[in-house]
TrEMBL record:
UniProt keyword annotation of Repeat present: yes
The protein, known as: Tudor domain-containing protein 5
Annotated HTH OST-type domain residues: 5-78, 128-204
Gene giving rise to this polypeptide: Tdrd5
Record-linked Pfam families: OST-HTH (PF12872), TUDOR (PF00567)
PANTHER family in UniProt: TUDOR DOMAIN CONTAINING PROTEIN (PTHR22948), TUDOR DOMAIN-CONTAINING PROTEIN 5 (PTHR22948:SF19)
């Protein structure tokens, strides 16, 4: 299975790197893979701890080189089938760049009174309209998406985040401020007298201006009010604040607005006291456990699917044909899960934020919903058991598997990420049972090969003990392939008249233990966005039912 996954991954990585003439950093490769495949690089499935470790195991696909600033650049090594494409991409981009430069240089020389003039305003570089590339602009937006940043700290933060200095000179800008003015449509430079200019995403400023003023009593109960002994009152929201300094405190009540992550403003009221004791200190507003940290709540499951409806699924975690998990493939669920993972990565990657959600030992208990970092991505998990002082076993609510991780990798889950239902659905192949007491390794291996790396059509049969029994069909081939038929024809399975409860899920079903029902317990209810078709009475569904019954007669 790993060998097959590695071969597919090599093709995908080579394709992405060939399209990038200058190469990609490991972080950029992760982003492009997520955008193309809609899920992270399968590092965990292949036993890798990082993207860099993965590409070093692909010497025939990826060339790894390092820059002086310590950044690693990944470039494609073309094979016989892609050499032509690689050459075409290289030549096309090179010629386009050359033509543009010659054209620009000609115009610049014509406008210049002296060919050898040292006036920067008449140089070929200055004659062009200076713009930052889309990729650099996106990196700036990414950097500011979690919290505003002082202008004087931009270079240091950019280097720490992306492994290289902010490349404004490379694109013809004489200063950082000039480069930022070229992206003024998305990034605002807020002038401040004491601490210097502040960089803020413009959309957050717009949202702050449009947001209605609300008193502390009007805040929802999930966003409580904290009061300190000195009279600091904080209207808590779903994002945490950056630290600020109390400056210019007089004899009157002062209100300091602290710019919040994700366009939320926290208001801090400071009672009049001796201002001198505040000036050299920073306000510490972070409680021991953030009020929006999930402590005693559970994720909800997706609503049950209607019998005989057809849904697109991806099989994620397989133990046997009677115990596996699936994802529903739809625009709604796929995009939302992708957005969730990006948001969690952006938020928890900031040490200031991540440190606030460190879980004390008293909170690391079985059943606790939290999140874990693996290869820089963050996943929603439930603690299944505590193994030692350093390790715990967790259940991945959106993928369906158990894994042992380090305690230090865990963080409290923010309340905001509780809303999205758990995406992994426990399933069993409908109307079949193993020819012996248990599924043979060969039967499980065959089932894994049938399910691997493809979107399948699932025909919902029924729920038995909170486990979805469904038929699986591969429609990517010329003839539809029904998996229960393949297992029967290979002598691994017997077809039965009714569904046999999954023995494996009887022994352990983490979803039933830790995931709450969606509230729609009636099997006839279904979220319409999850189904590709709802055709229990129309001709297509009848045809599918006849084909299933005709191919595999049940003992009725």
């Amino acid at each position: 299975k790993q060998a097959g996954l590695m071969e597919v991954l090599k093709k995908e990585v080579r394709a992405m790197l060939i399209a990038a003439k200058e190469g990609l950093t490991p972080a950029q490769l992760e982003k492009q893979y997520m955008a193309m495949v809609c899920k992270p690089l399968p590092l965990r499935d292949l036993g890798f701890h990082s993207t860099l470790e993965m590409v070093t195991r692909m010497p025939d696909v990826v060339q790894v080189s390092s820059c002086r600033n310590g950044t690693f650049i990944l470039k494609a090594i073309a094979d016989d089938t892609t050499k032509g494409i690689a050459k075409l991409v290289t030549c096309q981009k090179g010629r386009t760049h050359t033509k543009m430069w010659r054209k620009t240089a000609t115009k610049a020389n014509a406008a210049s009174p002296s060919k050898n003039s040292k006036d920067p305003q008449h140089s070929p570089m200055s004659a062009r309209t200076r713009v930052l590339p889309v990729t650099v602009k996106a990196e700036l937006q990414d950097l500011l998406s979690s919290s505003p940043l002082l202008l004087k700290d931009l270079d240091k933060a950019f280097l720490r985040r992306f492994g290289r200095a902010f490349p404004y000179r490379q694109y013809g800008f004489s200063s950082v401020l000039e480069a930022l003015r070229s992206v003024s449509d998305s990034i605002a430079v807020v002038e401040q007298t004491n601490t210097g200019s502040l960089l803020v995403l413009r959309k957050y400023l717009v949202e702050r201006e449009e947001a209605p003023q609300a008193s502390a009593a009007e805040m929802p109960p999930l966003e409580p009010i904290c009061e300190t002994e000195r009279g600091c009152q904080t209207a808590l929201t779903k994002w945490e604040p950056v630290e600020t300094q109390a400056v210019g405190l007089g004899d009157h009540l002062k209100r300091v607005s602290v710019v919040m992550n994700a366009s939320i403003t926290r208001k801090v009221f400071i009672q009049p006291q001796d201002s001198r004791q505040f000036l050299p200190k920073k306000l510490t507003l972070t409680p021991e456990i953030p009020p929006d940290a999930v402590q005693d709540r559970s994720l909800c499951s997706l609503p049950p699917l209607k019998r005989r409806c057809l849904v697109g699924v991806m099989v994620e975690s397989i133990v046997s044909p009677s115990q596996f998990y699936v994802h529903i493939c739809s625009r709604e669920t796929s995009y939302k899960l992708q957005d969730l993972m990006f948001e969690m990565r952006h938020l928890y990657s900031y040490k200031f934020v991540s440190d606030q959600y460190i879980m004390p030992d008293s909170a690391v208990q079985p059943g606790q919903l939290c999140c874990v970092t693996v290869s820089k991505w963050w996943y929603r998990v439930i603690i299944h058991r505590v193994i030692s002082d350093q390790e715990v076993e967790v259940f991945y609510a959106d993928y369906g598997h158990l894994q042992v991780v380090q305690k230090s990798w865990l963080r409290f889950l923010k309340w905001y990420y509780l809303k999205f239902p758990a995406q992994a659905i426990p399933c069993s192949l409908a109307r079949v049972k193993p020819v012996e007491d248990k599924w043979s390794p060969a039967a499980t291996l065959l089932f894994q090969k049938l399910c691997r790396f493809k979107e399948l059509v699932g025909i919902v049969d029924e729920y038995v003990d909170d486990v979805l029994h469904l038929f699986l069909c591969d429609t990517s081939t010329k003839e539809d392939v029904y998996f229960h038929s393949v297992l029967k024809d290979m002598g691994y399975a017997d077809v039965c008249g009714e569904n046999v409860p999954s023995q494996e899920f009887k022994e352990l079903n983490p979803s039933a233990l830790y995931i709450q029902p969606s509230g729609k317990q009636n099997a006839e209810l279904v979220d319409p966005e999850l189904c590709l078709q709802q055709e229990s009475l129309d001709a297509d569904s009848e045809a599918a039912a006849l084909k299933l019954n005709g191919a595999e007669p049940c003992d009725q």
